[in-house]
Design brief:
Largest sheet: 5 strands, mixed, barrel
Number of domains: 3
Mean pLDDT: 88
CATH topology of the largest domain: Rossmann fold
Number of helices: 12
Strand order of the largest sheet: 1-2-3-5-4
Shape: rod-shaped
Order of helices and strands: HEEEHEEHEHEHEHHEHEHHHHEEEE
CATH class of the largest domain: Alpha Beta
Structural class: alpha/beta
Radius of gyration: 64 Å
CATH architecture of the largest domain: 3-Layer(aba) Sandwich
CATH superfamily of the largest domain: Response regulator
Number of strands: 14
Strand content: 15-25%
């Protein structure tokens, strides 16, 4: 078969045709930014559109440094100077931007700012109206498309974090002509079921895809709901009116599920730790009460009249015993002294002397002390240990110088 070409040959041929068109080498295009992506590599990717068509645009990081003259956002009107060529690997043509300047705000962005300013002036963004998100919600309502990635992410995260939490889906169309009415009805329907918290949102998309969440009717339905509402629209960089009026904004549906569904394992671990702390505190309290009770019981026992009497009786007993000991000691001392004195007295006793052969001599009842006290023929009375003897003096003889 003749004239058969590869895909690469066809795309290369088309690229060569683009290269031969000098108009496409350097031109400036006006349009509105849509589906803007700032890649981690530094390259910028977005669509440039008007009411008639859409053109893919890329600005490489090397041109960004010196050619980007404004901060890009969806809905922004810009002027782009660059070239148009084909990206052979994907088989699509796109504009390669060298310079981007602001050309005024896009119509959608202008409407967004007008509605935001009006609702803010009405107080619908006031923190005073924000309801707290329950920490331990057991029923979580979800307003989103029944077949979208947002619902899948929410279900997956909810099952992982806490399979005991009930999810209640109130399906809604989240894009298109009748999306606003569908979302409002879904919010009101779910609010009548009184879940603990409600997630309202969808996955990412272009500004046009997310625009329904900038609708005033949706904003009022969120504001009027009795249930706390978490908005979860698009990606982290996407902001809508629903985010400002909701009670809490989550950057993504997955983040909303993380916030709304509490972690069962952490909760149970917390309960066990709390139980341990309470048991320890209770045991400590009981021990303190027991110690105080024992102290009070001891004090009461010590202050009881019977205890006082027993204490006084014991004291009296000790005093009596001490007194007896003192008396006994005094008696012992006296007895020792008496014995000593008795020994001394016995040593001087005439009777004792008499018992050793001595006697008591008296004349006319007067003691005879000297030989001269008697004369021969006198009658004397001798007292000895066992009686008296009457004797007559026959003669007297004095020792050493005595007389008859």
């Amino acid at each position: 078969m003749s004239n058969v070409y590869t895909v690469g040959q066809v795309n290369a041929y088309i690229r060569n045709m683009f290269a031969q068109d000098f108009l496409l080498h350097d031109l400036t295009v006006r349009g509105e930014v849509s589906n803007y992506k700032d890649h981690p590599s530094g390259h910028l990717y977005f669509s440039l559109k008007d009411q008639d068509a859409v053109l893919s645009v890329v600005m490489f990081s090397g041109n960004r440094t010196r050619g980007l003259k404004t901060r890009l956002r969806d809905g922004q009107k810009v002027l782009i100077r660059g070239s148009v060529s084909i990206y052979e690997a994907a088989g699509r043509y796109q504009m390669y931007a060298k310079e981007i300047t602001d050309d005024g705000e896009g119509e959608l962005y202008r409407k967004f700012l007008e509605l935001k300013a009006r609702l803010e002036e009405m107080g619908m963004f006031d923190p005073a109206y924000k309801k707290p998100i329950p920490k331990y919600a057991m029923t979580v309502g979800v307003v989103t498309a029944s077949s979208g990635a947002a619902l899948h992410d929410i279900m997956q995260i909810s099952a992982r974090r806490n399979p005991y939490v009930q999810l209640i889906l109130s399906p809604a169309t989240v894009q298109g002509e009748y999306a606003a009415e569908s979302i409002v009805e879904a919010i009101e329907r779910l609010d009548r079921l009184h879940p603990d918290v409600m997630i309202v949102g969808r996955g990412g998309g272009s500004q046009e895809d997310l625009w329904v969440f900038n609708d005033e009717r949706v904003a009022r339905a969120i504001f009027d709901a009795d249930t706390p509402v978490i908005s979860a629209v698009g990606h982290e960089v996407d902001f809508t009116i629903a985010d400002f009026v909701a009670d809490h904004r989550a950057p993504t549906p997955s983040a909303a599920a993380e916030l709304a569904v509490f972690d069962a394992e952490l909760y149970l671990n917390g309960l066990m730790e709390a139980e341990k702390r309470m048991t320890f505190q209770l045991e400590r309290k009981v021990e303190q009460i027991r110690s105080r009770l024992s102290a009070e019981k001891l004090r009461l026992t010590m202050n009881h009249p019977k205890a006082r009497l027993e204490k006084n009786a014991e004291r009296l007993k000790r005093l009596s015993e001490a007194l007896v000991r003192d008396v006994r000691e005094a008696i012992r001392v006296k007895e020792n002294r008496l014995s000593l004195l008795s020994e001394r007295l016995n040593g001087r006793s005439p009777l004792l002397k008499l018992m050793h052969g001595y006697g008591y001599i008296a004349k006319d009842e007067s003691p005879v002390r000297h030989v001269s006290d008697v004369s021969a023929g006198d009658t004397l009375k001798l007292t000895i240990s066992d009686g008296q003897i009457d004797a007559e003096v026959l003669y007297t003889e004095a020792f050493t110088g005595g007389q008859e």
